[in-house]
Amino acid sequence: MRSPFHSPGSPRRTHVPHTLDAAAVRTWCALALDALGRAREEIDAINVYPVPDGDTGTNLYLTVESAARAVDAVFDGHATTGPASRPTLPDAVRAMAHGALIGARGNSGTILAQLLRGMAEVLAEDTGDVEGMDDTGGGTDDTEAAGGPHADEPHAGRPHEAGGEAVAAEGSAAGQGAGPHEARLMPPAGTRTGHPAAHDAEQLRRALRRAVESAYEGVARPVEGTILTVAAAAADAAAGARGDSAAVARAADEAARSALAMTPGQLDVLGRAGVVDSGGLGLVEVIGALARALSGEAAPWGSRGTRAWTRPAAPYRQHAEHTPPHAEAPHEARHEAPREAPAHGPVPCPTAAPGSTAPAFEVIYLLDADDTAIPRLRTRLDALGDSLVVVGGDGLWNVHVHVDDAGAAVEAGIDAGRPHRIRITHFAGSGGTAAAAGEPAAARTREPAQRAVVAVVPGEGLATLCTDAGATVVAARPGEPPASGELVDAIRRANAREVVLLPNDPELQHAAAAAAEQARAAGVRVALIPTRAAVQGIAALAVHEPARRFDEDVVAMTSAAGATRYAELAVAERQAWTMAGVCQAGDVLGLIDGDVAVIGSDLAVTAATVLDRMLAAGGEMVTLVLGADVPDAVADRLERHVRGVHLAVDTVVYRGGQQAPPLLIGIE
């Protein structure tokens, strides 16, 4: 996955049009990540609702980053089974939805994850055999398919009209008593569903509609003028669009942009600030990426790397004195009670009384729980605070809420099931900045240090080793590599003017680059050393000298890391082709610089063979990092082997404690 941050003057890229398949989903995720990377700072800057903590763009980026990584993993998994193996559309959309769910951050990120899950529910259905169907059908003529809805005609079901007042419209999520699930699901008159292109278009219409339904189901108290409003407008426009899936996506994109421009008139806090909804702006980027993925159109980024969003006629920033009037509730459809079903549109945002305070904490966690436990959980959490979003299903949920009593919110999750990956953030005072809960107050107020090192390491043993050496540590959990947001948090915790970042994993290079870019935007000088293994990070940390000039220190650490060749021992999970031949499940694999070089049956014997091959090219010191389940006898045996076969080579052993891989090797 490429870094979403590009230097000025990046060339415009074009893309091949896609049918609605797994490749289109992968392209969509990549384009959405790219677009959010470009727009992240702007979205963060206009984040005033529900809490002005300036992180909506970052949260949306991290959510899509997790989704994109999951889709890439599906493609990579198929690639190992054979060159002709490709994932199906259900494979890709399920991975996208799951990745977004487990990686969702913040209020808008959690809602976006549910929107993607709703789309996946439809797109993962059995698509049936569309090959060989009547090619004479397919909806409309070429002009209609290429153009979508006419710009001078109102979109069917658009929930907003002039003046910012929400009106009842067919299928409108903001209509009088008409829920988002009640919009028409049938294609426009004259469209035949027998043609593959028409089938794709109808699937996308239904997917966008289901996305809105599921998002409303997950939000306890929907509010007018937010990401939900933008999503509903997009789905309504898609329901009335003619043509192929690209035309449907373009119609959704156009309607989303128009709805976004109306949000300052629907939400008082946006009108006062003169901005559009930040979550809605992020969704516009995501929907625009979908339209480009399906149409093959190039993103309209200028020579200076500006975002892919074209401002509508109404400015996205408005002066407070020219703010449109607030949208009124159409009648009984607006209410303050938690919603049990998505049978109503969003309610107006309540205006905070002067002197009132918002909840002190944001609580987010994944929850393993039976679906029957969720209604009671929603009721308990709704009584504790606001901005409640509970999304997911099939036993895995993502919970987000703003509360004063963070402990009570976690306890509610414990009563419902097993909460994990718990994240509690304190909204620090009226300034709207957030600090990680549990971070000492002194850490947020003390004078920044001149320099710090941030290192990603697996295992408690290595974490302790690096911490003792003065580094700020980010834990690498098995199967859950840290996202760029976690790296940014670590850079902030380091509280230094200059930071050296050691990702220690080739899979983290792009996440680390994104984190470094974000930290630089906040005024921190960051140097990213592209370490590919923990042993390279240890070597770099060993020569770190804060008293040196920053550039000199970075050069010395980079040189030490580059002079350290690395290997690891792993256990094969299944039969596969490797550079060393065919391995079977349970075989011990010796990987040198990331490639399988040795296949064996015994950990110590295979490790000795790896050491011999690496030391044949020279070396003065061997570093062994033992996994949690590896006995000390393995290290003793390897030390004796090195001492007996390779003269004048020292061996250093660390108890890393990582679950996988069982053994890490470094040669300096």
From TrEMBL:
Region: Disordered, residue numbers: 129-196, 316-354
Ranges of biased composition (kind: Basic and acidic residues): 150-163, 318-342
Coiled coil: none
Residue intervals of the DhaL domain: 23-292
Top-level taxon of origin: Bacteria
SUPFAM superfamilies: DhaL-like (SSF101473)
Low complexity bias locations: 164-175
Pfam families named among the record's database cross-references: Dak2, FakA-like_C, FakA-like_M
This protein's name: DAK2 domain-containing protein
